[in-house]
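Title: Prediction job returns without error message
Component: structure pipeline
Severity: low
Priority: P3
Assignee: unassigned

Description:
Job completed but the reporter wants confirmation the result is attached to the right record. Sequence as submitted:
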Amino acid sequence: MSTDKNTLHNKDKEILVEPALNLKKLRVMVVEDQPDTSKMIKQMLMEIGITQVYTSPDGQKALEFMDSADDFVDLIMCDWNMPRVTGIELLRQLRTVYPDLPFLMVTARGDFESVVVAKEAGVSGFIRKPFSIDELRQKLIKTISNIKR
């Protein structure tokens, strides 16, 4: 196996990462109403090397943050089920202003209807709870790579 910094190793296969794709420079907002889960996701992102992590306890606060910080985040990781403004409602509202902002839905849902609803709303990707740091890294790379192309 190669030790090239642009290669991500996943079990028995190597995934090439575009040199321009530098996860460490990402500015990520985590929208999660469960403080322990939010803290865990932030810690995982920091272990990957992403140091610019912003958290929001719900979709309403995330909207307020985005309104006051134009072009401030590169990716949103958002829980589906939250009070006030759900993840899918946040996605729909953000798509009207930020149609290309990578949006990774964090959910325990796996039913076909939920996937269809989120795809129709413009979700960039999904990650199912619970997930490992390696799964998170791979999902971030895939989500960002798909948007930048």
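Comment from assignee: result matches the submitted record. Residues 1-20 have pLDDT under 50 and may be disordered.
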